[in-house]
Amino acid sequence: MHFEILVEDLSGKKVLEILVPKIIGDKHTFDVKSYKGVGRIPAKMSSNVDASKRILLSNLPRLLAGYGKSWQGYPAAVIVVCDLDNKCLKSFRSELVELLNDCNPRPETRFCIAIEEGEAWFLGDIAAIKQAYPKAKESVLKAYVSDSICGTWETLADAVYKGGSQSLSSQGWQMVGAEKSAWAESITPHMNLDNNTSPSFNYFLGKLRELA
C-alpha cells in the first residue's frame, strides 16, 4: 500500500519521515507532504482556494476529491495529520468526515489529530525527550498531563529550552518554528512506538498499523 501523508508544517514532516518507516515497514511506500499552516475547512466545498498558499485544510476538499478520482483500484490511503489547537475534537472530526463523504469516489482516508499540538506526541515519551535533552527539567515533564489543553509546545519549551517558552516566543514565530524542527530532529529518533502515553499518538499508530 502507498501512504500519502498530509501534515500542516515542516516540523511535522520531519517527525513523520522518521516515524512512518518504523510503523509500516519496508513492504509499503509513503510520501509526506507538508503545508504552511493548518487553516480552516472552506464554508463552501466548491470555494475557489489559492493552492499556491499551501494551507492544509483550505486545500483539503480539492486534495481528497483528486485522490479519490485518481486512485480508483490503486491500494493507497490518505493520512491527514494536524493539530487540534483550541477546536472541539468532536465537531472538528465531524467536519472532516463530512468533507470526505462529499467525495465521489472517496479515497481511503484517516484523520489523525494531535491533541493539543504535535508536541504532545513528544511529551508522551519523556524518556525520548531526556535522551535528546539530558538537562530537561524533570518537574515540568512530570507535571504534564497527556493530551491536555495546556499550551503544549510551551510546556516542551519550558522543559528543554534555555529561558523557557517566554524566551523562545519573544524571538518571534520564525524562531519558534526553527526550534520545533530541532525538537523533531532530536527527539523523534529516540521515541518508543509502544511506550507512549499520548492517546492521539496511539490512535495515529493504530490506524497506520491497521492499514499496513
Task: Describe the structure concisely.
This protein has helices spanning 10-24, 56-70, 89-101, 119-123, 126-132, 138-143, 152-160, 164-169, 173-187, 199-211; strands at residues 2-7, 29-34, 76-83, 109-114. With 212 residues, the protein is α/β, with parallel strands linked by helices.
Q: Which structural class matches the secondary elements?
A: alpha/beta
Strand order of the largest sheet: 2-1-3-4
Roughly what is the average pLDDT, rounded to an integer? Answer: 94
Distance between the termini: 7 Å
Please tell me the CATH architecture of the largest domain by its name.
3-Layer(aba) Sandwich
- Written as H for each helix and E for each strand, in order along the chain, the element string is EHEHEHEHHHHHHH
Number of domains: 2
Outline: globular
CATH class term of the largest domain: Alpha Beta
Provide the low-confidence segments as ranges. Answer: none
Q: According to CATH, what is the topology of the largest domain?
A: Rossmann fold
Strand content: 5-15%
Structure report:
With 212 residues, this protein is an alpha/beta fold. It has two domains: 132 residues, Rossmann fold (3-Layer(aba) Sandwich), CATH 3.40.50; 66 residues, no CATH class. It has ten helices and four strands; from the N terminus they run βαβαβαβααααααα. Strands 2-1-3-4 form a four-stranded parallel beta sheet, with helices on both faces. Strand 3, helix 3 and strand 4 form a beta-alpha-beta unit. The protein is globular. The termini are close together. The model has no long low-confidence stretch (mean pLDDT 94).
